[in-house]
Amino acid sequence: MSFLELRAVEKRYGATLALGGIDLDLAAGSRTAIVGPSGSGKTTLLRIIAGFEAPDAGRVVLDGTMLADGPRSTPPHRRDIGIVAQDGALFPHLSVAENIGYGLSRRYVGRDARIRDLLAMTGLDASILRRRPDQLSGGQQQRVALARALARSPRLILLDEPFSALDTGLRAHTRQAVSELLTAAGITTILVTHDQAEALSFADQVAVMRLGRLLQIGTPRQLYLQPVDPMVAEFLGETIRIPALIRHGIADCALGRIAVDDDRSGEAEIMLRPEQFAIQPVTEPAAPGDNGDALAEVISVDFGGATCTALVRLRTGRERTGAASRTDHAMLLRLRVSPIALPDVGTLVRLTVAGRAHVFPKDEQSERRPYRSV
Ligand SMILES: Nc1ncnc2c1ncn2[C@@H]1O[C@H](COP(=O)(O)OP(=O)(O)OP(=O)(O)O)[C@@H](O)[C@H]1O
């Protein structure tokens, strides 16, 4: 049985369908990230789980307890669910200690020790206990907010874009610290974020939403490498999509012959991630071999430190062999290149593909398939 179970959850605001039948399962102690474009229903879903909104239809069950059955809904304070908002939402007039202890009874004997434990758990020093929120850095404020959310030992923690106000370095550091803390405490967590990389690195289950529906849910690796459709693929990172003819697990395409992750045959589009390519300058043009051993000319390069890119133009079949072929159209690919191996513009390079390409069968590209459990 799942620890948190949502079944056919629906919510409308007037004519707007905010949630159109959500089924979601969370295992105890797991971390789930919910991503999706603006207006896809992420906040509404979180608010329904927290109890700030009731669904029009559908059920929310936490650890065997029915929290919502259609509009009949348990109020937020009786759900044992902790929430950390985007800005931390600390009480500005209270000290750090008072913020953390807000939900703990003043008659609770071990109150002060519990507050100190929570502070230590979130990696903060006891010297800040008397400070007010405006005397803390953004990262410290978020950790205090987390300590406050953990104070009453919630069964579930909801993180609503808690790292978005932090700058890049602090963001990664705070995310890592929070992730380790939640894992150590074994607390089931849902993170809503706009940041795809954050979702992939934080969660062990990622759900992609669009227009009030879950398009796909699975492990970060499944979603990144085997997205159900091009929209999910592009939402989670850059893609290179090429028309191909698939036969016996091999795609025949402009890159040559590439191994694919699907054994069905027929016309399709294959998808590769830019980091699957390696490029090697060549002096002697050679015929393409297997698994993406194709030739291309470097059109432009962009030096961006850790993320450098090279725009290359694939050699067409005619350029390679002198004979017409089905790949006789110029194809531009934007590839990721190491800063120490960034080629000069005009260089002829050999492209090699690591791993297999993912296949989007033609019939599935036009019609978006709903949620598929993986
Ligand atoms: N209180 C409300 N009244 C009317 N419409 C609402 C209300 N709350 C949300 N909506 C609508 O429901 C849909 C889903 O909104 P929601 O805030 O859940 O999306 P979201 O994915 O969290 O968006 P964002 O990423 O921008 O925060 C949107 O079309 C939104 O305009």
TrEMBL record:
GO cellular component, one term: membrane
GO biological process: quaternary ammonium group transport
PANTHER family: SPERMIDINE/PUTRESCINE IMPORT ATP-BINDING PROTEIN POTA (PTHR42781), SPERMIDINE_PUTRESCINE IMPORT ATP-BINDING PROTEIN POTA (PTHR42781:SF4)
Protein name, per record: Iron(III) transport system ATP-binding protein
Example of a GO MF term: ATP hydrolysis activity
Keyword Cell membrane: yes
Annotated family: Belongs to the ABC transporter superfamily.
Keywords in alphabetical order: ATP-binding, Cell membrane, Ion transport, Iron, Iron transport, Membrane, Nucleotide-binding, Transport
Record's signal peptide: none
Domain ABC transporter: 4-236
Domain of life: Bacteria
